[in-house]
Amino acid sequence: MRLRLGKDFVVYISHPDLAKVVFQYPYQEHVRVGLGILEIYHKRTGVKKGLSLLQGEEWLALRRPAQEKMLKPSVVADYVPMIGNVTNDFVKRLKQQKTVTDLLEELMKYTTESVGMLCFNKRLGCFESSSNTRLIKALEDMFTTMQQAFLLPFPTYNFFRTKLYKTFERSQQVLDEVTHKEINDQVMVLKKLKEDGKLDEYLSKDPNFMHSLLSDPRMAKEDVVGLVTSLFGGGIDSTANGLAFVLTDLALNQDKQEILNQEIQEVLSDQQTVTKEHLSKMSYLKACVKESQRYGNVTRL
């Protein structure tokens, strides 16, 4: 499908054979569509670019550590218990509310809390009514203005600090502020544990993405900040939208929903906690997610 977005065209593919051709094409280096308003923000503020804006060798140098420490299936599986606790709290929240007026907003809170655990090894309190409303609002503004900027026929924000740009800048600054604070807090925690001789015990309980990055000789602290900011911001939106599409597709295909429900019941039985062993047996669940993402774009348009 060829779709016009602002002044440019984007081609979306969903057929597996075409996807195979794209993935196997011998590209010389990584090049992706730029995010104009985010590029301008980094240029005007001097904040170092994160993974989402880098190209070629610069992108590869930052991508490799992230892939080793977060993106391999065997590594991701170690985070299942941490995310499982967040998921259980999210389900309890939905049961208490009984009626959900805005599912995407709830999913944004869930993914913010989940990705926060991955990036910072810390609960951010997004399920508490009065907690982190500033962060949630900033994320909503950031993705909305990024979408609006992407669709503009002419990027006036390149030359003027327009109302749209100012809103985006404020939201991005909130995200940068939160990321810097959480990284600095985690550095202090790890430093104190090391001084007290308790670091190994602490790291043996749960995987710690932040520690693995900070202890990597290839990563300067500013690289860690840029990488974590990209993962935190990008992971929240794409995961929330992806979940929304999967749930919608299942609701529209209730026969498939029933098959998935049966698989979950058979694998979990009467157990309430999902483990990585459980997930490895849920082949139909994986198929549902893959099929939803095959023909549904998880990026806001």
TrEMBL record:
The keyword Iron applies. Keywords: Heme, Iron, Metal-binding, Monooxygenase, Oxidoreductase. Gene3D superfamilies: Cytochrome P450 (1.10.630.10). It comes from the Eukaryota. SUPFAM superfamilies: Cytochrome P450. The keyword Transferase does not apply. One of its GO terms (molecular function) is monooxygenase activity. Belongs to the cytochrome P450 family. This is Uncharacterized protein. It comes from Mytilus galloprovincialis. The lineage of its organism: Eukaryota, Metazoa, Spiralia, Lophotrochozoa, Mollusca.
